[in-house]
């Protein structure tokens, strides 16, 4: 990994909500590898806790975790108003569904919205309706939608998105994936490169995860899937495994899972990302996917490291490169294992010959 | 069923390339890259007619319910109120997420449940109401009743669950005494397994506090039993929590005692581990994460919990990706989605539509069936080189092997592993056909040389390895 771009993109993320709403808990689970049940040991946040998270190489999130006790709130809106609400890229407001003082929470929310819009900046607002696990499963949808419509009506027309969350299931990953998706630069180039990889592997879908958080950064689906929540479920599942590995004093490297219908391969792609390639079975051999991931690696490196320089056009052009492999991969579609083996063989020759897939990637 | 081959020695790469692939023509690089391994293995390295994994799955021997219900052993779960009996039952046998056990109500009538995942794994779990001392009749939740004498006669194991945070009060000690008396009277020899549960509760954060709580329970209950002349009652203590692997470990130990084939399976795993160069290996019931047998080298301590997590991941991911829905007319749809701009995340607007569109899905975690089939496999590698290989060896049965080095999962080494897995699979199949499944422990205390062993040819002792190796090599050369 040569020259990391010096022009890191800093984004200020404001985390607000009443005391005990779960702001620090969710931040710790997503960014600090805490397990859900360990969050009961966190103590209340006093004043503002700053943390800096490097996400996908160039993107630096400055997270301002604002303690939610009354005393601090007053100073946020008065004395510290300018420093707190200046240059906010994203406001995350956490609503505690267990809260007894609903109206008070909304009043504080409106004050935040007001402070943010007064500065005339185009901050995005994400509202997390948190601790949904205390609501019986059959009522969750109703409870959330009621809350959501009230939030929207009190957001002064600002672009506001609401997500139901709980630290106990994948909903937390859903919400935070959406948040970082709003921040990651060059998503189009990433998406194009993923398309190329997906085509080359004849994959059902390809998903790009950030390595440390396992949040979904981008994805491409070539064959539809009924489960809309599968990505965040994958985030949750693999992150649990990752944490378990860390408990055993090592780090997760790669995962391959298959049965008679599918094969899913998770391998490190760049230094900060992991790619998941899902292929049908019978279908392309695992080796094809692994090779294609290896071939695509420099391209993704380039997109991610030079994202600040806006290399969109170049990325679009070179995303065609891994498609070279798809000529080999195509015959495997829907055919048995022998075809897959053939396909793999011919691709391996390509790779060994080294003259047409690989250099195209590296310009 | 005679399996003339037993486990095979791992063959060096050059031996395989020298002739092993010749018969198959295509020269397909095998192992991590290969797709459909089993057929190839069986035909090359065993001289008995190959039984493909699929055939083993569908043969009638697998799903015929062997023992009539009255012979199926019962595992009774007793203990004071709110000690965690139903939680254990639901987490282990229903895969309930641990934190959701908070929603479970108290149990009013005993809930009998048949566990029948495969031929080997058949028993009933009776979740008894709190504070119930096995007096009078046991009322089941379907309204029927059962005399405690009958229940104890069929009882294979008795779990007594206590809350480690609460400690043991006089009532709990009295309860165990009452139960102990009934056991001594009606099922002499039956062991009582005390689960010192909720060991990782908020009140017990330090390791010292946990040890102290454990010792406390052991001393109090031991004294209580001795005081009333029940000192001879076999009692084992296990610390457990639904939040980590400990509850599976504890229940596994209990269930294994009911398994006459366990000794044979252990031997099989020992050979497998030795010939394939693994650190450890175990056979799991995938549904409950109970391990039915484990190799006896005890080298896998550090990775035991990780294996449980591996099972979870394999099952969870398979649940997501096996049922894709409309996989048929992918052509147009695929391009449509690919052309769909950024399309990575469902936008907030898309979210709305999707919420409305899937009311039928309900709560998928609870209802999802286990997508575990004969081709289920997984390889997970860690950065320090540890590699976990999971293979299906029967209905809801997985072999999980851990290696300290990554090379088992590379190239043709994995082919050797697969071929040996295939032999284990067939040997297990033989065990089920010969064996009678679980039997009440009070009757057959010795789990070893039960019926299941017949037909299984285990590898010879180390001294004779050489001749076997040449025999294996010979069978390859002949092709």
From TrEMBL, chain A:
Sample GO molecular function, one term: GTPase activity
Transmembrane segments: none
Taxonomic path: Eukaryota, Sar, Stramenopiles, Bigyra, Opalozoa
Family: Belongs to the GTR/RAG GTP-binding protein family.
Superkingdom to which the source organism belongs: Eukaryota
Gene source species: Cafeteria roenbergensis (Marine flagellate)
Gene Ontology biological-process annotations: cellular response to starvation; negative regulation of autophagy; positive regulation of TORC1 signaling
Name of the protein described by the UniProt record: GTP-binding protein
Keyword terms, alphabetized: GTP-binding, Nucleotide-binding
TrEMBL record, chain B:
UniProt keyword GTP-binding present: yes
Biased composition (Low complexity): 330-350
A GO CC annotation given for this chain: nucleus
Highest taxon of source: Eukaryota
UniProt-listed GO biological process terms: cellular response to starvation; negative regulation of autophagy; positive regulation of TORC1 signaling
Cited SUPFAM superfamilies: P-loop containing nucleoside triphosphate hydrolases
Regions that span the bilayer: none
Keywords: GTP-binding, Nucleotide-binding
Annotated spans, Disordered: 1-45, 328-367, 438-479
Signal peptide as annotated in the record: none
Family, as annotated: Belongs to the GTR/RAG GTP-binding protein family.
Protein name (database record): GTP-binding protein
Species of provenance: Cafeteria roenbergensis
């Amino acid at each position: 990994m040569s020259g990391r771009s010096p022009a890191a993109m800093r984004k200020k993320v404001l985390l607000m909500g009443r005391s005990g709403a779960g702001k620090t808990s969710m931040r710790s689970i997503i960014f600090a590898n805490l397990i859900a049940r360990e969050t009961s040991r966190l103590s209340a946040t006093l004043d503002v806790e700053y943390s800096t998270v490097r996400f996908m190489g160039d993107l630096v999130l400055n997270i301002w975790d604002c303690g939610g006790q009354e005393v601090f709130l007053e100073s946020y809106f008065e004395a510290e108003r300018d420093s707190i609400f200046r240059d906010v890229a994203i406001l995350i407001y956490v609503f505690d569904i267990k809260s007894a003082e609903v109206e008070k929470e909304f009043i504080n929310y409106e004050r935040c919205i007001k402070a943010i819009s007064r500065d005339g900046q185009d901050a995005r607002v994400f509202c997390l309706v948190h601790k949904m696990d205390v609501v019986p499963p059959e009522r969750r949808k109703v409870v959330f939608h009621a809350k959501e419509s009230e939030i929207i009506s009190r957001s002064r027309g600002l672009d506001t998105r609401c997500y139901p969350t709980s630290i106990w299931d994948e909903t937390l990953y859903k919400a935070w994936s959406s948040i970082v998706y709003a921040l990651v630069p060059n998503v189009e180039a990433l998406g194009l490169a993923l398309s190329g990889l997906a085509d080359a592997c004849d994959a059902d879908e390809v998903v790009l995860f950030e390595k440390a958080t396992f949040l979904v950064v981008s994805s491409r689906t070539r064959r539809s899937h009924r489960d809309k929540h599968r990505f965040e479920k994958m985030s949750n599942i693999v992150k649990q495994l990752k944490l378990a590995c860390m408990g055993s004093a090592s780090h997760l490297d790669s995962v391959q899972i298959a049965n008679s219908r599918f094969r899913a391969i998770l391998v490190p792609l760049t230094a900060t990302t992991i790619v998941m390639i899902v292929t049908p079975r019978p279908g392309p051999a695992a080796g094809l996917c692994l090779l294609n991931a290896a071939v695509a690696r420099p391209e993704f490196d380039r997109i991610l490291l030079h994202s600040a320089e806006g290399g969109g056009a170049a990325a679009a052009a070179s995303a065609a490169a891994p498609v070279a492999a798809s000529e080999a991969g195509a015959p495997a579609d829907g055919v048995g294992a022998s075809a897959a083996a053939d396909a793999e063989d011919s691709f391996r020759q390509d790779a060994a010959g080294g003259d047409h897939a690989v250099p195209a990637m590296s310009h | 069923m005679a399996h003339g081959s037993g486990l095979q020695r791992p063959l060096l790469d050059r031996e395989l390339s020298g002739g092993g692939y010749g018969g198959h023509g295509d020269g397909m690089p095998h192992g991590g890259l290969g797709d459909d391994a089993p057929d190839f293995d069986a035909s090359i390295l065993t001289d008995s007619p190959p039984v493909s994994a699929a055939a083993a799955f569908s043969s009638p021997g697998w799903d015929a319910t062997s023992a009539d219900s009255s012979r199926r052993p019962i595992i009774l779960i007793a203990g004071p109120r709110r000690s965690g009996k139903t939680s254990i039952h639901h987490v282990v046998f229903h895969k309930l997420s641990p934190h959701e056990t908070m929603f479970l109500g108290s149990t009013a009538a005993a809930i009998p449940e048949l566990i029948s995942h495969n031929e080997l794994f058949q028993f009933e779990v009776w979740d008894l109401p709190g504070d119930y001392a096995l007096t009078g009749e046991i009322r089941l939740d379907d309204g029927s009743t059962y005399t405690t004498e009958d229940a104890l006669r069929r009882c294979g194991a008795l779990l007594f669950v206590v809350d480690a945070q609460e400690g043991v009060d006089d009532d709990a000690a009295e309860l165990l005494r009452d139960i102990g008396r009934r056991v001594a009277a009606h099922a002499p020899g039956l062991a009582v397994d005390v689960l010192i549960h909720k060991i990782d509760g908020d009140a017990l954060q330090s390791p010292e506090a946990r040890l102290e709580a454990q010792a406390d329970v052991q001393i109090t209950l031991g004294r209580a039993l001795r005081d009333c002349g029940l000192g001879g009652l076999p009692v084992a203590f296990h610390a457990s929590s639904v939040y980590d692997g400990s509850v599976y470990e504890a229940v596994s130990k209990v269930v294994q005692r009911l398994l006459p084939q366990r000794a044979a399976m252990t031997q099989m795993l020992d050979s497998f581990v030795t010939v394939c160069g693994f650190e450890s290996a175990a056979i799991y019931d995938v549904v409950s994460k109970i391990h039915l047998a484990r190799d006896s080298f005890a080298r896998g301590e550090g990775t035991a919990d990780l294996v449980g997590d591996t099972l979870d991941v394999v099952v969870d991911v398979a649940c997501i990706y096996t049922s894709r829905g409309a996989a048929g007319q992918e052509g147009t749809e695929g391009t449509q989605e690919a052309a769909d701009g950024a399309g990575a995340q469902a936008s907030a607007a898309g979210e709305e539509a999707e919420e409305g569109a899937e009311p039928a899905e309900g709560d998928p975690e609870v209802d999802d069936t286990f997508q575990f089939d004969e081709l289920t496999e997984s390889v997970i590698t860690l950065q320090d080189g540890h590699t976990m290989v999971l293979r299906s060896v029967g209905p809801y049965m997985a072999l999980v092997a851990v290696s300290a080095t990554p090379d088992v999962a590379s190239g043709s080494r994995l082919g050797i592993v697969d071929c040996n897995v295939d032999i284990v699979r067939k040997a297990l199949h033989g065990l089920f056909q010969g064996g009678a499944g679980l039997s009440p422990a009070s009757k057959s205390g010795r789990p070893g040389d039960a019926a299941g062993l017949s037909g299984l040819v285990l590898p010879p002792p180390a001294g004779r390895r050489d001749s076997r190796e040449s025999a294996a090599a010979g069978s390859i050369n002949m092709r």
